């Protein structure tokens, strides 16, 4: 007797995950009668974080469905923006440092591990802190412990930022977060931050902010124009305060750290 098989098709946005022969309409897949539909989809290379829905013979189905011989499965892409229950905060893996700094520049809560702590520890932190795991590692996104996850489709930071903003539409609060550590910034008087400054900086600037977590001091320095352009483009597309920072940075000048390491 022939082995049971189903037919399955994927939307073009998920073609990056599947083999070339599965990119042209529906194709046959052998099933074993015990593996769930979610397992079958994953075994073909697609992280379930990227699946917005499944249909079996045209009717909505769950990832726990046991596919039976002759059934036709359609895999649907995640809708954009994707709605999640709970606050929108993120956890980025070791390869996404530039994206982390850019999200923080826009005021998005973006935790980032600059050392590789391993998939298990990342997944556990995602679960414990209810953070969306952002990664280009499919193996990591397959982990069941994740609170939520999303594949980052591009290797270019500019495109990665657009990808995350268009996918989750997080509220933007530019210039309110420390790009170095993700802490919240507060306005700081020159007298209180003077010991952190070199002479030239102290003479040239009057408006400062300081991270409430790591004490990094920020001001409107040499990289301000470039970072402002990133902020302006994001706010133009996705909304948010245009110039004046909100909350503790209630000033018309947006402070920025004056070192080349920020938001590369
Ligand atoms: Zn900080």
From TrEMBL:
It holds the Pfam family Mut7-C. Signal peptide: none annotated. InterPro entries: Mut7-C_RNAse_dom (IPR002782), Ub_Mut7C (IPR027798). Residues 241-264 are annotated as: Disordered. Residues 89-230 form the Mut7-C RNAse domain. Residues 4-80 form the Ubiquitin Mut7-C domain. This is Mut7-C ubiquitin/RNAse domain-containing protein. It comes from Kitasatospora paracochleata. The lineage of its organism: Bacteria, Bacillati, Actinomycetota, Actinomycetes, Kitasatosporales.
């Amino acid at each position: 007797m022939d082995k049971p098989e189903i037919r399955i098709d994927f939307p073009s946005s998920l073609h990056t995950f599947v083999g070339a022969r599965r990119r042209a309409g529906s194709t046959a897949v052998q099933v074993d009668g015990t593996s769930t539909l979610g397992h079958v989809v994953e075994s073909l290379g697609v992280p379930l974080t990227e699946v917005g829905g499944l249909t079996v013979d045209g009717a909505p189905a769950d990832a726990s469905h046991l596919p039976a011989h002759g059934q036709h499965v359609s895999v649907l892409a995640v809708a954009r923006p994707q709605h999640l229950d709970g606050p929108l905060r993120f956890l980025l893996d070791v390869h996404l440092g530039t994206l982390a700094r850019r999200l923080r520049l826009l005021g998005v809560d973006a935790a980032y591990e600059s050392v590789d702590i391993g998939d298990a520890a990342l997944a556990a932190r995602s679960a414990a802190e209810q953070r969306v795991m952002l990664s280009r590692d499919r193996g990591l996104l397959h982990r069941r412990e994740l609170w939520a996850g999303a594949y980052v489709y591009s290797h270019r930071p500019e495109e990665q930022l657009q990808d995350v903003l268009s996918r989750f539409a997080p509220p933007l609060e530019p210039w309110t977060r420390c790009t170095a550590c993700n802490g919240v910034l507060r306005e700081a008087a020159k007298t209180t931050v003077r010991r952190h400054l070199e002479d030239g900086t102290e003479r040239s600037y009057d408006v400062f902010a300081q991270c409430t977590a790591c004490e990094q001091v920020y001001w409107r320095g040499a990289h301000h124009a470039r970072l402002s352009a990133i902020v302006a483009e994001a706010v133009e597309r996705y909304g948010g305060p245009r110039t004046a920072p909100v909350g503790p940075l209630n000033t018309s000048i947006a402070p920025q750290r004056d070192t080349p390491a920020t938001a590369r």
